[in-house]
Design goal:
This protein is of the alpha+beta class. The chain has 3 helices and 8 strands; from the N terminus they run αββααββββββ. It has a 6-stranded antiparallel sheet with strand order 3-8-4-5-6-7.
Amino acid sequence: AAAINYALAQVGKAYVYGAAGPSAFDCSGLTMRAWGQAGVALPHSSSAQSGSGPHVSMSDLQPGDLVFYYSPISHVGLYIGNGMIVHAANPGTGVVVSSVSSMPYSGAVRPG
């Protein structure tokens, strides 16, 4: 819950490549800081985060899971439930809530 609450509190903040808060984030910076609130250390890289826990299928997603996109993996969001993720989308959009299927899905991991 701590990771989700932190990430949702960042909605509306700017996307800056390489940033991990507090005023701006990139995709893996947001998930790294969010899970850090829950005491779990993640690397600041979406592809590295994809190896940070057991893989889960899309049908088994639980809030807090990391959802990865594209092939090779180049984007990550935090699953918040009800088919939605919170993610640092891009410089034009910033941190937003989107559908889990809004980008080409490549897998999911449950950190911790």
